[in-house]
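Quick illustration for those who missed Monday's session on complexes.
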Amino acid sequence: MNGFPFLQCQQIDVILYAYFMSHSPEHVECLIIGSGPAGFTAAIYAARADMKPVLYEGMQPGGQLTITTDVENYPGYPEGIMGPEMMDLFRKQAVRLGADIRFGMATSVEFTPGGPQKVMVDGMKEIIAETVIIATGASARWLGIPSEQRLNGSGVSACAVCDGFFYRGQDVAIVGAGDTACEEASYLAKICNKVYMIVRRDEFRASKAMQHRVENTPNIEILYNSETDEVLGDTVVEGLRVKNNVTGATRDIAIKGFFVAIGHDPNTKIFKEFLELDEQGYIVTRPGSTYTSVEGVFCAGDAQDKMYRQAVTAAGSGCMAALDAERWLSARKASVASI
Ligand code: NDP
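Prediction with NDP bound:
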C-alpha cells in the first residue's frame, strides 16, 4: 500500500515526473531576457546559429516600441511602420527561425564568471543557461509628485499613443523636451484640440527636426522655463498648475489628459549585485562588444545604451550579442574538448 490509496504506481510515477519536471531546472544554451528590437534580433541570430534560444518577453512584450507610433527611421520601411506592428514582425521572424519565445519575467539571477548562469523566471522556474543575453531595455520615468501618482491611470499617462485617444477633441498637456515628448506632442496634436508642452528649460533637448515640427504645429503651445507644480483634480485630471521657474509665477490650465515624457531608466535592478553598472544603472559593456563584466553574460539594447537608444541601434547590438555569445560558447566548448 502506498501513501496514495487511490493511485496506481504508474500514476504516481507520472505525477512525480511532472512534479520534478516543473521543479527541476531547465538547461538552455542561450537565454534571452527581454523582447524589444534587441531581444528579438538576438533571438533571430542565435536561432540561426543553432543555439536554440529561449526568450522571455517580460512585462511589456515587444518593449517600448509597442507604445510608440510611426517609426520612420528604421531602414527598410520607406512608408514608415507602426511600432507594435514592427515588433510583431520581429517576433514572427524569430519564431519562424526556431526561437522559443515565452511569456514570463526574469525575477532574479545568479551569475558566475564563465557560468553556467542561473535565472529564475516568475519566481518559480529555474533556468540554467550557458549564455545569457540581457535585453531588458528601459522604463518610463515619472515626475514623482503625489498628484501625478494619485491620478495615474485617471488622466495621467506615460504613453500618448496608448491613451491619447481617450482625450480626442480635448485639451491635454505633455511634459518633457526630448524627442519622445516632441513625437508624442505631435501625435496628440492630431487628435486633441490643444496640446500644452511643459519644457523646464528655455530650449529643447530634442533633435532640431522634431523641435521644428512641434514649433510649427498651430495647436501646440510651448511653455518654456515651466515646471509642473501639481496635477489638479480629485478623481480625474481636470487641470495643471504650472510654475514659471524664472519668475516664480504659477498658472492653472484646464486639461483632461496629462502625459509624462521625461526619459527612461534602464531595467537592470535584478542584475546589480552581479554585473558592473554605471552611475545611472546602465549595464557596462566592454567597448565595441556586448560582453558584460561577467563572462558568458551579454547585454544589448537600451539596458546598456544611454547614448543612441534607437530601434536600429538596439537591433544592431542584439545581433552583436548573439554573435558574441555564439563565439564565446564555441571557444569555451573547444577549450573544454581539448583538455
Ligand atoms: P531624453 O532623455 O532625451 O529627454 C528627456 C526630457 O525630459 C529632457 O528634455 C529633460 O529635460 C526632460 N525632463 C527630465 N526630467 C524632467 C523633470 N523632472 N521635469 C521636467 N522635464 C524633465 O528622453 P527621450 O525619451 O525624449 O529620448 C530618449 C532617447 O530616444 C533619445 O536619445 C532620443 O533621441 C531617442 N528618441 C528618438 C526618437 C526618434 O528618433 N524617432 C523618438 C523618441 C526618442 P532637460 O532637457 O532639461 O534635461
